[in-house]
Amino acid sequence: MKMMKMRKSVVAAMMLFGLVVAPVAASVSLADGETPAQQGNGLTKTDDGKPVDGTEKKKSGPGGFVDVVFGSGVLGVILWAALFLDGAAAIYFIVDCWVLIKPQKLMPQTLINNVQGAVAEGDVMKAIKACEAEPSPMSNVLAAAFQHVEDGYDVIQESVNAAADLEIERIMQRLTWISVCSNLAPSLGLLGTVQGMILCFATLASGVPDIGALAGNISQALWTTAGGLVVSIPALTFFYSIRNNANRLILRMTALTMELIKPLRNVEVDSEA
Question: 272 vs 88, 186, 192, CA distance in Å?
Fold first, then answer.
């Protein structure tokens, strides 16, 4: 069962990675400056009608994505590595939260049925064992209620609220990492843009600027901005989608928990148990 869950997580991660990488790959293809027709014959024509080798024209133009990454200096390579790591981290936390925040994970139906049966019988120890057999956020909340059954219903409610707040905080902490990745990506892209602009002005200040170097610096500034947005936009979209789903499920779990513990007002615990 665990292997199937791991395979599903890997497949989901690959799909999300494709969503992030596809726009970059498409941009790289457009940045190469060749149409399919030009790639087929390798020849273009000048204004005078003379054929020009397409491969030579490509070499004389500005570099592609790989040239931008490795031609931007040590700081540029570090920035791009940080962007890729940030994107990988965003994919990991998205898949993790997507798998975790499910109704069957937060409040398993078997747990609900077993607890309902145990409470209907007035067997608190059976209900506690049912919670231990189905580890989940809801089982933790219910276990906190059953452990204080002898202290009165008011204490039970306080225990449930405290345990529910703790479980909500745990869930939101995981979600927060997606938000961190989505906010970090544009900052890294902006830093790369600033570096590219600094290199542009340094090239202009050299007296007779190298047009190729100047174009490369501008290309670096734009590429890093695009890279940051490519990571940030999907991560931000998934963050709000998963967060809204989590809030909806948490409300359902809280309401169901309060419904399950209502009969505890009349439950008597066997002291010998």
Answer: 55, 62, 69
